UniProtKB/TrEMBL annotation, chain A:
Signal peptide: none
Gene Ontology cellular component terms for the protein in this record: cytochrome complex; plasma membrane
Source organism: Seonamhaeicola algicola
Lineage: Bacteria, Pseudomonadati, Bacteroidota, Flavobacteriia, Flavobacteriales
Name of the protein in its database record: Cytochrome ubiquinol oxidase subunit I
One Pfam family per UniProt: Cyt_bd_oxida_I
Membrane-spanning segments: 12-36, 57-80, 86-113, 125-145, 180-203, 215-233, 319-342, 354-374, 404-423
From TrEMBL, chain B:
Species in which this protein is naturally found: Seonamhaeicola algicola
Gene Ontology CC terms, in alphabetical order: cytochrome complex; plasma membrane
Keywords: Cell membrane, Membrane, Transmembrane, Transmembrane helix
Protein name: Cytochrome d ubiquinol oxidase subunit II
Keyword hit for Membrane: yes
One record GO biological process: aerobic electron transport chain
Membrane topology value: Multi-pass membrane protein
Length: 435, 338
């Protein structure tokens, strides 16, 4: 493995890990404060038990997200020093604001976790709300920095020099809004379905059914609403990419030949050497419509882009994109199913209902990771779109592969540990009496 | 605006050293305690730093962000040449953070606690050592900056600067300072019987810091490190160290009289003076290389960037500092009884 591949794998691996924890740490506080609010309103002790057990989850995920985030703030420089040397000052704005938002989150969490019976009830609850809001704000800011890599702005690039730097313009780059919206909804979908799925399994096993049903309803409501809104945001993103990064769009769709009224492929096997997709379902003219809102619009194919500006691994981008869209659609239908089941309550008496939601639990996160693979691998070979190549940004230090192995082992162990801890939390919750 | 940014950089670094330093030190004290006292220290640590420890460690992120936004050239050198110790710091920060939370939030308190405790203690010792080693590497004079890294051998480019006696002693010295800060903090939190324990720890930590500080200077002097030589030539730096040393007397006195606030203020001041001495010795030439030095002010970003960064820091500071102050106050004023 050469240094560049090792660095890319390490970055990908740490991000894949961090995103899961960051999303849960950002979305779960909302579930927690809803349960908390219901406890304050109803004084039903079930809600108190639920709030306290969710808060433990928040604490564990927050810290894992925080330490892996600290690691990332170093890794950006450790792995991509040349990128940070030039990009650092330009995208400093979202990162410094993110630092501030994250700080606020940590302070608010300190108040929340340790404030039981010590702070005034309403203020205590409100600190929980701040945890959630600050978390979402920092998520949006980080995504905005990533948006800048896709849609660089706020500087002039003349003869290899970055001049006229305007950090505010860089923050408000063309991609920030569509990406941040898509990611925020994805975080709510993924976490909502994951948490709801875990509680659904407990109901399926008939443990503390009342508590887990309340928990399920809170989590799935967030997840379902986000999942139903997500296709709209996806459409905005697709149209945006079609305009700004046509080569990424072509890679996502494995669209090789430039044509008017381009069809949309569903499924299929990519043969990059021959430049064709076999075994697919073809919907005529749909790609042109989805990308440009016009059935006869011309969509430029991969064959018409020079080799040095398109990603090497077209198949990966295409499969990841299909995975994301497929799973996203499935979750949208599951969300609709949930809202119908609120009317048709007898569905919830059926064990298979709970089994279904349990099986859906990991899918949101799979879709979310697949989406990041699309946007990151799809941007290659660029680290800053059309400005700097990834290979020119990597650290000159050889042997990154060992550092990659170290992170692989470390985060592998952490994943197992956190999963195990969560199982213990659930076991503890199920064995405890609710007074 | 450059001075605003520099102020926040120094301020964040200082708070990181004092607050996170005391956190690390608490783990070091726990490591060097008997079995019974470990349990005691563990409980006290949780009570004292539980609500604030996460915030304490965010200062390093602020430092890193200010460096990469405001001083990209400096950040670049740090990240390329000191890659290895920085990676080890990250390993330590990660293990320590998760161990701290795991041991307090695991639903069942069983034998796995032994593993969490061990992880917490070991990473509490190792992380500050490597933080110090990294700083030692910056000022060791062994960083070989070259445009031609492909043809430099791995050892002299990426290892020699930090893996040497001088940098290692700086690392131990910093860990000693952390233990010192923690012992002072714990004295203020302990009850009558426990007090004696932490006073003893504080005494040992103080002596250790003095010995290690002496060793750093001695090794640096013998090996003719530019940093140490210019330290001896700088009357302000020496004055600050002497002042810091003299403060031990009122510190002992205030410990005896159980004056919590004054004790902590004095210990904090001592550490600030030591940092200040290091600062006046070689600011603005923060990095000393094999053939000269790097002036941090020459690696600064453009005016526009510094202006925006300064504004962002002022706004961020205005939100964070009152919140943080209130957080610390809330949990110090209200005694948490277990």
């Amino acid at each position: 493995m050469d240094n560049l591949d090792a660095a890319r794998l390490q970055m990908a691996f740490t991000l894949i890990f961090h995103i899961v924890f960051a999303c849960i740490g950002m979305v779960m506080p909302f579930f927690m404060v809803v349960a908390h609010k219901k406890w304050l309103n109803t004084k039903n002790p079930i809600y108190l038990t639920l709030t306290k057990s969710w808060q433990k989850g928040v604490a564990i995920f927050f810290v894992t997200g925080a330490v892996s985030g600290t690691a990332l703030s170093f890794e950006l420089g450790l792995l991509w020093p040349e990128f940070m040397k030039y990009a650092g000052p330009i995208i400093g704005m979202p990162f410094s604001l993110e630092g501030a938002a994250f700080f606020v989150e940590a302070i608010a969490l300190g108040f929340y976790l340790y404030g039981w019976n010590k702070l005034p009830e309403k203020f205590h609850w409100f600190t929980g709300v701040i945890v959630g809001i600050a978390g979402v704000a920092s998520g949006i800011l980080v995504v905005s920095a990533n948006g800048w890599m896709n849609a660089p702005s706020g500087f002039d690039y003349i003869n290899g020099e970055f001049t006229n730097i305007n950090p505010i313009k860089a923050l408000l780059n063309d991609a920030w809004f569509t990406q941040a919206l898509h990611m925020t909804l994805a975080a709510f979908t993924a976490t909502g379905f994951a948490v709801a799925g875990i509680h659904a399994f407990q109901i399926y096993k008939k443990r503390h059914v009342e508590l887990h049903t309340k928990a399920f309803k809170i989590a799935i409501t967030f997840g379902a609403i986000a999942a139903i809104l997500q296709p709209l945001s996806g459409d905005l993103s697709a149209k945006d990419i079609a305009k700004r990064q046509p080569v990424k769009l072509a890679a996502m769709e494995a669209h090789y030949h430039t044509q008017k009224g381009a069809p949309l492929y569903i499924g299929g096997i990519v043969n990059n050497e021959k430049g064709e997709v076999t075994h697919k379902i073809e919907i005529p003219k749909a790609l042109s419509f989805l990308a440009f809102g016009n059935f006869d619009a011309e969509v430029k194919g991969l064959n018409d882009f020079p080799d040095d500006v398109k990603p090497k691994n077209i198949a990966l981008v295409h499969y990841a994109f299909q995975t994301m869209v497929g799973l996203g659609t499935l979750l949208m239908f599951a969300g609709i199913l949930f809202f119908i089941s609120l009317k048709k309550t007898h569905w919830m008496q059926n064990k298979r209902y709970w089994l279904l939601f349990f099986l859906l639990a990991p899918l949101g996160f799979l879709a979310l990771e697949a989406g990041w693979i699309v946007t990151e691998v799809g941007r290659q070979p660029w680290i800053i779109h059309n400005v700097m190549k990834t290979k020119d940004a990597v650290t000159p230090m050889p042997g990154i592969v060992y550092s990659f192995y170290m992170y692989l082992v470390l985060y592998g162990i952490l994943t197992v540990a956190v999963t195990w801890l969560m199982l213990r939390q659930i076991k503890f919750l199920n064995n405890s009496k609710i007074s | 605006m450059l001075y605003v940014v520099l102020f926040f950089l120094a301020f964040s670094l200082l708070l990181y050293v004092l607050l996170a330093g005391a956190d690390f030190g608490a783990g070091i004290i726990e490591q060097f305690s008997s079995k019974h006292n470990r349990t005691l220290t563990k409980k006290t640590i949780y009570r004292v730093i539980g609500p604030v420890w996460e915030a304490n460690h965010i200062w390093i992120i602020i430092v890193i962000v200010i460096l990469w936004v405001g001083f990209p050239g400096f950040y670049n050198i740090l990240m390329v040449y000191l890659h290895i110790p920085l990676t080890l710091i990250l390993l330590g920060i990660t293990l320590r953070g998760v161990a701290f939370v795991f041991r307090h939030y695991d639903a069942y308190k069983d034998k796995t606690q032994l593993l969490y405790d061990w992880m917490f203690r070991v990473s509490s010792v190792v992380t500050p050592i490597f933080l110090g080693v990294t700083f030692g590497g910056l000022i060791s004079g062994d960083i070989e900056i070259t445009a031609n890294l492909e043809n430099t051998n791995f050892y002299s480019a990426y290892i020699a600067s930090w893996f040497n006696l001088f940098s290692l002693f700086v690392g131990f010295f910093f860990a000693g300072i952390c233990a010192f800060l923690a012992s002072i903090m714990l004295i203020g939190e302990a009850n009558k019987t426990e007090r004696r324990l932490y006073v003893k720890k504080a005494r040992i930590a103080t002596i250790t810091v003095i010995i290690l500080g002496f060793l750093v200077l001695a090794v640096g002097f013998v090996q003719e490190k530019v940093f140490v030589l210019s330290f001896f030539k700088n009357p302000y730096a020496i004055g600050l160290i002497v002042f810091s040393a003299l403060l031990i007397l009122p510190l002992l006195n205030s410990i005896k009289n159980e004056r919590r606030i004054i004790t902590r203020a004095l210990a904090g001041l001592q550490v600030i003076l030591i940092l200040l001495a290091a600062f006046v010795t070689h600011f603005p030439d923060i990095i000393i290389t094999t053939n000269g030095s790097v002036n941090i002010l020459e690696t600064v970003a453009t005016n526009q960037v510094i202006k925006v960064l300064g504004i962002a820091l002022i706004i961020g500071g205005a939100i964070i500092l009152p919140g943080l102050f209130h957080l610390m106050k809330s949990f110090k004023m209200i005694k948490i009884l277990e």
